[in-house]
Amino acid sequence: MKMQWLPIKIYTFVICCIQLSTAANILAVFPIASPSHHIWNTPLVVTLAQRGHNVTVVGPEALKTQVPNLTDIVITGLYEAILEEFNYEEIIDVSPLFTMGMFFDYSSHQCLSIQKHDAWKQLMNYPPDTKFDLLITESIGAECLLGGIQRFGDPPIVSINAFNVPFWMLETSGTPNMLSHIPHYVFTGTDHMTFWQRVTNAMYYIYSYYHYYYNYLPAMDKAAREYYGPNVPSYSEVQQRISISMANYHPVLDYPFAITPNLIPVAGMQIKDPKPLPQDLQNFLDGAKEGVIFFSLGTNLRSEKLTPEKRKALMEAFAELPQKVLWKFEADSLPGQPKNVKIGKWLPQSDILAHPNVKLFISHCGLLSTHEAIYRGIPILGIPFFADQPINIRKLVNNGAAIQLDFKDLTKESLLKTLYLLLNDPSYRENMKKLSAKFRDNPETPLERAVFWTEYVLRHKNVPHLQSAAKDLNFAQYFLLDVLAFLLAIPVLFIILLFCVCCRRKSTHARKQKLN
Fold first, then answer.
1. What does DSSP say about strands 70-74 and 157-161: parallel, antiparallel, or unpaired?
2. Top-level EC class, please (predicted)?
């Protein structure tokens, strides 16, 4: 009897050995204090831990999923400090240029705050022989931290980004950034721009490049030297260890462009099969015979901070609807709450959007919310505020799947008019369903793709065969400016030489005539 079980025991032992031999030590550094970034980043590290890897995560929010081989080092206090500074009116009034500068200032503040935090010091105090096989980090906000990671064995880097593909990720992956047809994330132009739109787009990019390379990165390098010492590698040196980049990009929403093999699109990585809803929500949605309108301004913008005038306009409009309204509202109560409105401080957004009775989504059009609405096929009434939100809603409007209503124009009358159009014109839902079918049509899920390529880097180490030589070229070489200068110099020199010869001949001829 014992002999019958021997092959099974041997097989089990071999499988365990294989798993142990392939398990890697992975460090993940997520500096951006934003719940939406946390929601997008978390599935990757949790899945890697569930697959047997030892994962250490450093970030501003605690992980909700507990895995035995997952270590969570929480940078407390970052998100709360940022959240208190949000002001609806001020955010809407700022110019795109100010938005860009504000984002770099915010990322710099995050990085410097983490440097000083006890949790980061806890990581830096790990034993000297600690080695990590891989570093996963967000593409911005960690530049002043990463130089110190060399003490853990200079691991290859997987760079990830929760908001589309920023220009610095294109630079580090060697992917061409075509300003002629790819609008800047704060510019609401399309991929078919007029001359003056291309001028505007180019100016936005030039400003961003200047701010990033001449203000932001030098400040990050200075902070790294002050913290780790003068011999710490600069971020430009750290960038050379980026093996692959993964971005929240999908051509269904985002304008298509040529990408290199080391830039992996993983849009919708946070989206999973819908889970059972809490019973009160389930009953509310099931009982909505006329359907449900879901209203959420995301994780950074809070409905409780809306001005009394805007809140009144929303409630008066909702009260006249035959549909029920589910509103993400962060306070315990909503004075004057209509009977057809239910509020909740936290609502499982993706699971709610999957309910068949949800007819419409009123959203700020953050990228995660936009992707989830597309995936579930729910048309959007978009009220954008800042950053990429205006361009996200503009793309959906161009696809006939949404209507934009600016916050300044939000009144009871404008809201009711827009809601009526979206709810009674079936084309919006049909167009969103078409986008949904395209978004879903992939050979694997975005999370499966992200896990595969992460483990691909572990298996093949640094993956130099995926790297474009464009990463090693300077600006003049990349755009062939040196070659163009050379080619232009040849005819110019020829003309100058010809002019000199002609002048010399003319001078010689004049002298001869004078002598004669």
1. unpaired
2. transferase
